[in-house]
Write a structure and sequence with these properties.
Pfam families: PaaA_PaaC. By secondary structure, the chain is an all-alpha fold. The protein is built from 14 helices and 2 strands, in the order H-H-H-H-H-H-H-H-H-H-E-E-H-H-H-H. Helices cover 64% and strands 2% of the residues. The chain has a two-stranded antiparallel ribbon with strand order 1-2. It binds fe (ii) ion (2 copies). One fe (ii) ion (FE2) binds next to helix 6 and helix 7.
Length: 328
Amino acid sequence: MSAPTLDRPAAGTPDEASLQERFDATIAAEHRIEPRDWMPEGYRKTLVRQIAQHAHSEIIGMQPEGDWLLAAPSLRRKAILLAKVQDEAGHGMYLYSAAETLGADRADLTDKLIEGRQKYSSIFNYPTLTYADVGVIGWLVDGAAICNQVPLCRSSYGPYARAMIRVCKEESFHQRQGYELLMTMMGGTDEQRAMVQDAVDRWWWPSLMMFGPPDDDSPNSAQSMAWGIKRHSNDELRQRFVDMTVPQAEFLGVTLPDPDLVWDEAAGRHRFGAIDWAEFKRVISGEGPMNAVRVARRRAARDDNAWVTEAAAAHAAKHAGGHAGSAA
Ligand SMILES: [Fe+2]
Ligand SMILES: [Fe+2]
């Protein structure tokens, strides 16, 4: 007798309609879907795509700041940056593990990233030109990541939601270390203050693009919200980020590069200028200033370190004894 599969129930097990009903009831009750549960194929595919894209962003996101590890201005700054970049590697690992609970294969996901068949966040395709960029990435990029990821702690898929809880705690450290670095620089020389302002000028708009296209140009959002994978729309999260960040910019003493940015008393929120969506589309489709470098470096890391993967697999197979086949 063969075991029932997820997509083809055997005789005596519930039919697809009742499985769908149970899935819908779980979502409606705000309970979690777990790996053992039946789920619609579209839900599984959407999650794999989103979690993979998120995992790729964590791993590729190590590069812009990693470039500064050997040029950190002090031992203290180097230790902080090293801890932060290592955290991002850990985030990638939790997320690839979450994708694996959905039947995805981590090596296959990496191949798809390198071949350009899966995306990562557009933000990591910009260069880090000075050490102030390290601070601004922590403040703005990790700050935007927090806005995006805190609601994901309530995502309907259990392993993803649980991974996000730890990720968000670490992101909060990332944001603070960035802000603390910028506060230090703003208390320094005119040249240091100018470096911070220049970094803010370059990273502000790309940070707003991190929330993705506007709601009326985001075709998959409605379904993701209905499934409880996403909790707020792109524009809602972007607005939350702007409202949170403007007072922090004032306290820091920098100017956000948007002449249209004003507080709207009646609406109780900030209004801001038009985002250059043509730039966003260029960068996300591979034409950003650093896309080729990021992917080439990821490819080299995969190829140069293949012997480690092979050795680990051989070691696992040896220790699995009679179950060598499953370890391979
Ligand atoms: Fe992260
Ligand atoms: Fe981070």
